[in-house]
Every structure is written in C-alpha cells, then in structure tokens.
C-alpha cells in the first residue's frame, strides 16, 4: 500500500437532492474549495442560492466525464447519487487519485475496487449518513458500554434492535411522504431481510410481512426488518460469548402504515422492474415532501444484555430551513469528509464507525453540529 494521498482541500459534491442539507454549508466553511455538481450548471447554481451558498461553492454540470476531467490528486468526491452509480464514480476516483465518500451501504461493485483504492493510498468512506451511519455509531457505543459492564467472557443473552425511519411530522392517510428516492424505498421492500429472532436466524422474503408494533417513548410505531442484519454482529464488536436472542436492523414507520400500503404491497408482489419504477414515480408525485410539509426522523437503537440495558433515541423534526433527513445525512457525511481532509481516516474502506472509540468521537462531534439525541 502506498502512503495516503494527502488531501488537496478540494471537495466535489455530486447531487443536490432531498438529502443534501447543511452538511454542504459546513464543508464550505472548512474545505478550501467546494464544487457542486448537478444536472445542469443552472440547477447547481439555483441549489446553492436556495441554501445561501452562492459564491461559496462553484456550480458544475455533472457528467462522469466532466467530473473526471476536473479531478486532481487528493480531491474528495462526495456522491449523493443513487448507490448503483457509486462504482463508476469510485473508478474515476482511483484513476484520478481522489478520495471517495458516500452515505450508502457498501455494495459488491464498490468492494471490488477497494483493493485498488487502498493500494493507491485513497480513502473510501461509506455508510456515513443516518441509516447507515448514525445507527452504527449508536450500536458501537452501546455494545462498548455493555462490554464494560458485563465483560467479554461472561456467558450472556442479548437483544439488539435498531430501527430508523423518515416519516411525516403530521401523519397523512398514506402514513408516509417520500424523503428520499422513491425507487429505493420500494426496492428495499422487495429485498429479503435476514436477522435473528428467538435465538435463530430468520429470513423474511417479503419484509413487510414481518411488520410488528414497536413502542418508543409511549408512541406506537410499526417496524420491519431490512436487508441483512447478521454481518453487523461482528462489525459492532459483540463478544462471541454472548448469544443473540434478537438482532435486527430495520425500518420504522407510523402506526397504520401496513394497512395504508396494502395496495402497494400487491403491486410489489406482482409487478416487474418496469412497473415498480413507474409506481415509484406515481407515489412520489402523490405523496411528496413539499416545502409546506415537515418531515420527522426517528432512530431508536436499544441493547439488553442480561440485566444491563441501554438505548439511544434520535427524534428530529425538520424546519423551514432544512428537513430532518437532510440534516442527519448531510451533517454526518460532512463530518466524515472533514476527517478525510484532516488526514485522520486511513486508506481503504471506512464506515462511519469501525471502533467504539471512534464512534464516541463522532457522536460528540455530531452534538456540536446540532444533531441531538438522548442516551438512557
């Protein structure tokens, strides 16, 4: 592995969609130069104007070719585009010797390029948003606290649940408004979920069919498992001597969501890719998060080990300046980018948190950034 490529101070932020919030402004305060890449230069300029950043970042028309042409060694590329586009952008980063950051789960296509990026001395930062991102920080912190209280070698039974959702602050009949890519919402529901329940590995081919009630501070929500939870047992540092009775990472929705989405589920069962893509657009048009609406983000992570228990709760509502989703995703991602800029992240694959110690550092920094949560 080569030595880490020193950061140049230039950040390329690609995309100004629903999850781009005040994190972009924070980077304008710390980076030497910021370029915002959007569908057209005019759209990029408008996005900067809406955020009060005109003159603080340079607007650009995004194509992969035009981005590649402007990359210099040590630049940092931040992708807010859909996850399938990350691999192509990372390939351009490796070619141009630029660091890469995103808030999405690491994909197989991205993993394939990590060895080349590591050999080139480049940071590849993933899972540095809300979920995935802050949820990892909470889980690492809870596991570390429990290990200190219980001990690694003590035989113990534990339950870890991590549920996150972006929901309307004022419930509507649909019990939802789209605060991120609608196709991503639907396709996540089409993917089987693997988790531990009653001490055994469980697979839900249709995750919504595993929906159950979940009470948070006296308020009833509906939750269901999402993706593959099992790799995170090791990632969160759970001692091998502990046996999981429950280990699930999932999605949180308002009470009544399951019934309100019944017609959607029927489409998911029968529809092909083209129909689901069309349905996503129809639903997004019918239930958008508009400037008049306020979104709400709820992230509840809890851990019980024998008689010990701990819980983190983040419950934020958006305001006129910024949605709660954009605040959580963009500020966490911007924090990670700042750690690339200051040289504190090593070359190779990084997530929002790889260790309990670093999780605690990030949580303290997020509090200073205005992302509030409670620990009990």
Molecular structure report:
The chain is an alpha/beta fold. The protein has 14 helices and 16 strands. Strands 7, 8, 9, 10, 11, 12, 13, 14 and 16 form a nine-stranded mixed β-sheet that branches. A seven-stranded parallel β-sheet has the order 3-2-1-4-5-6-15, with helices on both faces. Helix 1 packs parallel to helix 13 and helix 8 crosses helix 12. The model has no long low-confidence stretch (mean pLDDT 95).
Brief sketch in words of this structure:
The chain has 376 residues and is of the alpha/beta class.
Give the topology:
Layout: E1 10-14, H1 22-30, E2 33-38, H2 41-50, E3 58-61, H3 64-70, E4 76-79, H4 86-96, E5 99-102, H5 108-111, H6 114-119, E6 123-125, H7 134-150, E7 156-168, H8 182-190, E8 193-197, E9 200-204, E10 212-216, E11 219-225, H9 231-235, E12 242-254, H10 257-260, H11 262-270, H12 273-286, E13 295-305, E14 308-317, H13 324-341, E15 348-350, H14 356-368, E16 374-375
Parallel strand pairs: 1-2, 1-4, 2-3, 4-5, 5-6, 6-15, 7-12
Antiparallel strand pairs: 7-13, 8-9, 8-12, 10-11, 11-12, 13-14, 14-16
Helix pairs in contact: 1-13, 7-14, 8-12
């Amino acid at each position: 592995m080569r030595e880490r490529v020193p950061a140049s101070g230039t950040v390329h932020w690609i995309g100004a969609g629903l999850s781009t919030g005040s994190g972009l402004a924070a980077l304008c305060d710390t980076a030497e130069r910021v370029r915002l890449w959007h569908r057209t230069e005019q759209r990029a300029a408008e996005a900067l104007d809406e955020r009060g950043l005109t003159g603080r970042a340079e607007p650009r028309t995004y194509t992969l070719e035009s981005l590649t042409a402007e990359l210099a060694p040590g630049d940092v590329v931040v992708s807010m585009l859909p996850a399938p586009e990350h691999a192509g952008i990372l390939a351009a980063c490796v070619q141009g010797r630029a660091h890469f950051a995103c808030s999405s789960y690491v994909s197989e296509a991205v993993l394939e390029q990590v060895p080349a990026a590591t050999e080139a001395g480049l940071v590849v930062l993933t899972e540095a948003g809300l979920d995935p991102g802050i949820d990892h920080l909470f889980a690492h912190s809870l596991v570390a606290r429990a290990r200190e209280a219980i001990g690694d070698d003590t035989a113990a039974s534990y339950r870890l649940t991590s549920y996150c959702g972006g929901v309307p602050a004022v419930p509507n009949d649909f019990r939802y408004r789209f605060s991120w890519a609608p196709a991503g919402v639907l396709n996540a529901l089409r993917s089987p979920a693997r988790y531990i329940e009653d001490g055994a590995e469980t697979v839900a081919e249709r995750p919504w069919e595993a929906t159950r009630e979940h009470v948070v501070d006296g308020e009833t929500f509906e939750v269901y498992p999402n993706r593959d939870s099992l790799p995170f047992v090791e990632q969160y540092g759970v001692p091998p001597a502990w046996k999981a009775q429950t280990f699930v990472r999932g999605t949180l929705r308002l009470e009544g969501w399951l019934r309100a989405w019944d017609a959607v589920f029927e489409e998911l069962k029968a529809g092909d890719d083209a129909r689901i893509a069309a349905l996503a657009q129809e639903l997004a048009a019918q239930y958008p998060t508009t400037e008049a609406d306020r979104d709400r983000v709820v992230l509840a992570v809890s851990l019980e080990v024998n008689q010990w228990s701990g819980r983190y709760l983040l419950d934020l509502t958006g305001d006129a300046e910024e949605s709660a989703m954009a605040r959580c995703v963009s500020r966490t991602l911007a924090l990670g980018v700042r750690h690339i800029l200051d040289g504190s992240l090593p070359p190779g694959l990084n997530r929002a948190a790889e260790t309990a110690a670093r999780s605690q550092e990030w949580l303290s920094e997020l509090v200073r950034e205005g992302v509030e949560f409670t620990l009990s």
